[in-house]
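User: Structure tokens for this complex, please. No commentary.
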Amino acid sequence: MTVERELFDYLLRLADSPLILAQRLGEWVGKAPAIEEDVALTNVGLDLLGQARLWFGHAGDVERRAGGPGRDEDQLAFLRDTREFRNLLLVEQPNGNFADTLARQFLFDRWHFLVLRALTASRDARIGEIAAKAVKEVAYHRQRSADWVIRLGDGTELSHTRMQAAIDRLWTFTGEMFAVDAVELALIDAGIAADVRALEAPWRDEVATVLGEATLAVPASTHMQGRGGRGGKQGHHGEAFGHLLAEMQFLQRAYPGARW
Amino acid sequence: MVTPEQQAVAAAAEAAAGDLPRPDADAIWRVLATVPDPEVPVVSVVELGMIRAIGWEGDEPATLVVRVTPTYSGCPATEAIAEDIRAALGRLGVARVRVDIVLAPAWTTDWIGEAAREKLRAFGIAPPAAARIDVSGISPLRRPADAVACPRCGSTSTVRVSQFGSTACKAQYRCQGCREPFDYFKPH
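Assistant:
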């Protein structure tokens, strides 16, 4: 069975989430509450951007192998339109306040780490190599975001309120992280993709443990966006996403082929 | 003053003038050992463990293939390092060089030797205090920072200011003894 088409789509899912989150983190440059946090936010963004580049490189190779154009990282990042992006809805959510940004990072990091660790055993050797490198970087990301969730949750009344509100608001975007569709099912069967269905329970355990330590409540809502095969992974995005692409892609759209 | 690089070039030129058609592996490693990390110039890319292998490929004139592994996925120095490697080998007379970026096995600070750790310390960067980061389980909450000795005064009374610092590979610490801030090379 050939799964090249599904593999290309899956690699875009792996690449687009870190790319879009890196873009969001980059919006904090010069605006973070403290210089150390400015540096930390953008360091995390830089790691994620580097990971996205590795996934795009592999995606381009797979596309070429399948007889397609074999687009490079710049073409994939800057010249696709909204519906062609495969990132999670969670990562495209606007930065909001510092608690919103760290809550988004926390919910993503815990998922990202589990996915990457599972992918180190992928039957696609290149996926395994990239995941083995990235998981070490994400180990530091998840430590930091959990530290902040605890510090703000178990902090002042104001920081607690804001962190709880952020977790509550973002919760609805976490469901699609554990939903599979035909693309992922085919690749799970082939031993290539991570079976995210098996990661939901450990993710919930970890999140509940950290939220408990932070004196925050696990949201009770079970309403999840994009869970029925019509979410970010299938190219359905929210209103804010178009604005993000407009800023990220402006240069290549206005001056096609421009290089540094 | 004769720099290590000039010495290496001279040695290689001597070797090339003899029976050897191309610089031997020792000469190549000596030249590579003069290529500094652009962001931590006190140590070389060899000392950081970034050069995984070298080898010749194809018939004469053969191409020298240098296998390089990046430290962090997003490290912006990777491209500069590849350029610096080509330039250094060019000065050794090796014109055909290909730098292959390899990811596996993933780079780890465990590959930084004792001598390089001392150089980092002397430069004001505390070397990794622990072995490579553990990715096997969930991380403990309210995890205490690594016990890092201040590279200036040696005090172990230090606090972590931020897990992320001036480059991807470093955290920011502050010494409670001499009150100075310093960089800490994170275990990876």
